[in-house]
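FYI - complex with fe (ii) ion, inputs then prediction.
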Amino acid sequence: MSFQQNQRYQYNFPTSIRFGRGVIDELGPHLKEQGLKRVLLVSDPGLVKLPVFERVISQIKASGVLVEVFSEIAKNPVKSNVLAGVAHFHKSQCDSIVGFGGGASMDVARAIALKTHHELDLFEYDDAMGGDRFVTGPVPYFVTVPTTSGTGSEVGRSTVISDDTTHEKKILFSPKLMAKKVFADPELTMGLPAMVTATTGMDALTHCVEAYLAKSYSPLCDGVALEGIRLISRSLETATHAPTIESRADMMMGALMGAAAFQKGLGIVHSLAHPLSTVVDMHHGLANAVMIPFGMEFNLPVSGERMRTIASTIGIPNPSAEGFVAWLRELNRKLGIPASLKELKVHENHIARLSDLAILDPCHGSNERPVTRADFETIYKRALA
Ligand SMILES: [Fe+2]
């Protein structure tokens, strides 16, 4: 969308990021410099068993800061995880929080940071109900350390937590929940398995693509999104099949850039993907990867010009919007990602429920081409063929 004379705009790009090989070694000294005494390190149960975790704990301790570990978190974090983390924080008299890991660790760490000094029920802070207005109290010093390159939630301001019984997802949001410092060290991602690299990387790519196509006016986000697309497109295959530190750095930067850019909005692909996680428990990145060619095909009649710019940014020999869609299909094939939902336990009888959820999803609100429930049904059917 072009500049609108009668509109005023708000952009936010303030996160302080340390980026590069070995920046993880600055974490302990940084906490010490802030005058912190005891940090709650929030991570997931798989990560705490890896040697890198021990390395991080030792260097924080070596800086003279005490460490408490909290890792009782589900793959899709639930409210009871957050409350247990808050209890741990208070019981052990921590003064700061580090979210260390992928999206789930970040979400729980950020929600603990919110709840520590806020007395209302956690879901009273639900952004959909205007809960951000209650985020008025102090938030402990909060640092994020990503170990995957996908969600980019290390630079985000929101967290997604589910209800333990209904599994309903709530988004808690406040600018106060942004990390004070991000330590993004691509070396931490060197050992990620190929499929995790591919699917989280496709999530990051989808963020950049959808942000670039989103219809609001934000040249700042457009620039960030396009460069993110360039970095990811040149490195995702290498990072997946024969990782180098350079390709891992591109992916980590691309993920950060995608999350910074999608403050502009997302689009149809995320609205197609979210119901697949709810209905058949599909990994978020995998769902985006499978659906992005279909979502882009739908966008062709309206977003063709912007897609041509993406195609030339990637360096497709014959840069056209259709060429970009074909490139996405080919990329999925090279990454070992299925071309159809049929291979992913989705059946014809799921389509009605998927379409009901997709039309309610807020992401397609910023898609340039308006989407109806019937459109979602047609797209799911095509993806299932
Ligand atoms: Fe995403």
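DSSP finds twelve helices and eight strands in the chain. The first helix runs from residue 27 to 33.
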